[in-house]
Amino acid sequence: xxxxxxxxxxxxxxxxxxxxxxxxxxxxxxxxxxxxxxxxxxxxxxxxxxxxxxxxxxxxxxxxxxxxxxxxxxxxxxxxxxxxxxxxxxxxxxxxxxxxxxxxxxxxxxxxxxxxxxxxxxxxxxxxxxxxxxxxxxxxxxxxxxxxxxxxxxxxxxxxxxxxxxxxxxxxxxxxxxxxxxxxxxxxxxxxxxxxxxxxxxxxxxxxxxxxxxxxxxxxxxxxxxxxxxxxxxxxxxxxxxxxxxxxxxxxxxxxxxxxxxxxxxxxxxxxxxxxxxxxxxxxxxxxxxxxxxxxxxxxxxxxxxxxxxxxxxxxxxxxxxxxxxxxxxxxxxxxxxxxxxxxxxxxxxxxxxxxxxxxxxxxxxxxxxxxxxxxxxxxxxxxxxxxxxxxxxxxxxxxxxxxxxxxxxxxxxxxxxxxxxxxxxxxxxxxxxxxxxxxxxxxxxxxxxxxxxxxxxxxxxxxxxxxxx
Length: 470
Prior knowledge:
The protein is α+β, with helices and mostly antiparallel strands. Helices cover 36% and strands 16% of the residues.
């Protein structure tokens, strides 16, 4: 048995006093319909609370002819048919079939560029219904695991998001290499402070994008990132600490916390990568040049649906006076982004780094210092104390030059200095005296017990012990 339609049941409940009557007196039906029209109803899928007399009368006669099944809503006669002109329909279908990843906004832009329509005479819903009818639209359903709340920073520069998207493969010097899109987005304005394709997703790549974002858009107050090892690096934490940026880590496996940036990644795939012929990009510079032209010329200048009719660039410019300034730190920006490693100076005045040895001031021998490294060149620059004071430059060791280099001899400050005069008491002589005193009684006793009559001779021999004891 086919289930009854809920709308038909509601309409029958409205006709209850009429459906229970078999006949009416003259004028009684009209008065009953008028009374029903003055009542208030909870109408399904509607905000209205009253039903007109004409509508109730039509429902009554339909019920009299076909019963409750006649009260079911009838499908629209134009269901499955679009009211758009055939030329526009063909253009929309062709545009979508040419690239199924194209969004409705991209299709609208395509139609406007072709001169087929304008924003006033075509709507998103019309394009969507046509794509659904043709089977070219696949809706996605999102499952909410935990409670989520929409939020937005009060001012531009308050909060930035950082994330990495896996990009396509490009051929560089005959070798196919994968690229990664590192992006930083401002929460309040949805403006990309900086975004660039890199050959990796390491801390060094993220720091390079962060530096360019700071040079272009100033300093942020909070920087929200993932829990990956690249974001947990000591170098990134040190940079944010020196710039007084609060580094915040999202919960693991919850990309919804950076939903705005995840949505940006989808826009990149649908509107940038889908329109890109990757074979035309012979280098990473070519790919980034196309990306930056599209971001600055299209994305930043297109009205955003959540910015009250403003573009991301216009919304960001509203809070220019509230952005954090560099002050005197602008001259120290390069030094802030340098990496620092703890090293001990060897006895030959060198420091080892990446299999090579670099000479530092020889006075630092056997001391622990901080080796300052240019991260992108992978080159040591100088050495600093643990407190951050400059101690000298680090130069690659030239072994051939050191072969003819004159050495400087200096005495250590804590070395012992020989005394010119002899010590008043000699420990060595005291030891000899103790040994002599211990041996003397033994020899004297033996001489008294073995004494024989002496015979005078012309020559007397002196015992050897006398020489020892003198």
